[in-house]
Amino acid sequence: MKQALIGSQQKSVDSIMACRSLIDKRYPNHLRLTAGLAHAMISGLSPKEETQVMPLSIGDDSSSRSLLVWEKYKDKQLKVDRDTRIDQAAMEWLIAVSNGVTYCIKFSGNFHKKHFYTSTKKPENVQAEYDKLDAIKDDTARWLAAQEAADEVKFRKQLAHRTRKEQDCGTCGHPAGDHPASGACAKVTQSIGPTGKMKNGKPERGPIFTPCTCVKYAPPYAEKRGGMQGKPSVNPLVGATTAGANDVIWMDKIPRAHFEKVIVAAIQKRMSELKNTGKSWGEGDVSGDKAEHVEWDFGANHRGCILKIDQKTSLADAKAKNYSSVEVLMKLDDTDAKKPVFTACHLDGKKTK
Ligand SMILES: [Zn+2]
Ligand SMILES: [Zn+2]
Question: Cα of 231 to ligand 2 centre, how many Å?
């Protein structure tokens, strides 16, 4: 809930903010004094309501965060409208290149959910971390540290969505690969026991094959998203299990225009290399995917925008590695001269630098 302030009240907010450090000393509670809280003091709202307006320094419309598209869905548990990323199949970036040529960038193989990470947009999560960090005396530093801590929690949670624990079938415990088309489980377990036949007058023992009786793939991650929350894209990470590290691109940290420029430059660099050797896109790819490795190099000004993380890596350590470049496998799915379609399908973590 927010209330508009009349002119004189806004002046009071401004003057409160001007003597912020004094007020922080006088009201040593766990709330960060923000314009929102000052607003609450003036308007008579409870400070709790006003914690909603604490500013998060997440990427705005000019950051690559805005390249991701969210859609509204009704959360079945919380009974509120919330945002979720649209399905990967519907995601496409149109980047104007030159002379009327537009590159259409698409994604497959869970690429966009696996590798594009964004800072938390939940102020309540940041506030919770802020409350734990009272050892940091400078308020701005404390708030920034809280935001980083909340992002670390979010990133680890996202990594956990790719573990066998969340991706194996919750009914039978077998992986997605054992459930063709997410239907009945095809796993047959072999064991040794009575075969039901008799041999030399005794029940025979031998290999027994027991088909799994599970009729539908139901991993905990999808059950939560689809069944409990009602998200339209039920399992954007199906089949993408990992126990180890993941390489992620921190979208808030890269300006959108720069990201687009980097992709175009990476494609064009590879094109000119191919041209020099008389080859076409994907000609040398023996896997049949007809893909090429291109390097998305975000440059020295964006060191730390690529994170190699696992459940034990702190965000601070991951940032300190200063990675700013990844190698991405891209297919050329439509060779239309005016609007070629390139699909990013894999990121090779060994090439991150
Ligand atoms: Zn099974
Ligand atoms: Zn199953």
Answer: 21
Residue 287's pLDDT band, with cuts at 50, 70 and 90, is: confident
- Taking alpha carbons only, the member of 252, 227, 340 closest to residue 292 is 340
Question: 234 CA to middle of ligand 2, Å?
Answer: 16
Burial of 201 (0-12, 13-18, 19+ CB in 10 A): exposed
Under 8 Å CB-to-CB from 277, ≥6 apart: which residues?
none
The pTM for the full model equals 0.78
CB 346 within 8 A of CB 240: no
Instruction: Classify 189 in phi/psi space as left (phi over 0), alpha (psi -120 to 50) or beta.
Output: beta
Ligand 1 centroid vs 182 CA: distance in angstroms? 11
In whole angstroms, what separates CA 61 from the centre of its chain? Answer: 18
Task: Give the integer Cα–Cα distance in Å for 45 and 7.
Answer: 17
How far does residue 181's CA lie from ligand 1's centre (Å)? 13
Instruction: Tell me how far apart the alpha carbons of residues 259 and 223 are, in angstroms, rounded to a whole number.
Output: 34
Q: Give the chain's radius of gyration (CA, Å).
A: 26
Compute, in angstroms, the gap from residue 182 CA to the centroid of ligand 2: 9
Q: Supply the mean pLDDT for the chain.
A: 86
Cα 208 to middle of ligand 1, angstroms: 16
The DSSP-derived string for 2-51 is --PPPHHHHHHHHHHHHTHHHHHHHS-SSS---HHHHHHHHHT--HHHHG
List pLDDT tens digits, range 39-74: 566 666 555 544 444 578 899 999 999 999 989 999
What is d(CA 156, CA 347) in angstroms, rounded to the nearest whole number? 19
